[in-house]
Design a protein that fits this description.
- By secondary structure, the protein is of the alpha+beta class.
- It has a domain of about 60 residues.
- It contains two helices and three strands; from the N terminus they run H-H-E-E-E.
- The protein is globular.
- The two termini are about 25 Å apart.
């Protein structure tokens, strides 16, 4: 879990190193990761992502002109506060974001949590699920 941007970067099956989530190739080693985060470009690390709606208000600052797509820096990457309560990991951030169409700002709070879940296939009877 990455507090910088509030993203889960890795998710894999037991016994496997294969990540179910896409991650930026810059994160493959320490030096390219440092250069990536030192740059002024959008720090899209990959992993899971929260999308806000309406997208026209949050990501198209010149709406109705759709030429420029912009990720507001207060949102992505946000600076999340991480906490742990027993088996649950939680993270939250607050941001002030601009709305394109309304020409005003809004306060948002984004919170996420991660905790163990029961096997979703536990009721499947008569199927060979050993490799799942």
């Amino acid at each position: 879990m990455l507090p910088h941007g509030g993203r889960v970067l890795g998710l894999s099956a037991p016994g496997s190193d294969e990540n179910f989530l896409w991650t930026h190739t810059a994160l493959n080693d320490v030096e390219t990761t440092r250069a990536f985060y030192a740059g002024s470009q959008w720090h899209n690390s990959g992993g899971d992502r929260t999308w806000l709606a309406p997208e026209a208000d949050f990501f198209f600052p010149d709406y109705p002109d759709l030429t420029r797509y912009w990720q507001q820096r207060d949102l992505d990457p946000g600076h999340y506060v991480v906490s742990r309560d027993g088996g649950e990991l939680a993270w939250a951030t607050r941001a002030t974001l601009a709305l394109s169409r309304g020409k005003r700002t809004v306060e948002v709070e984004i919170s996420k949590s991660l905790s163990p879940a029961l096997n979703p296939l536990r009721y499947e009877c008569g199927r060979e699920l050993a490799g799942v």
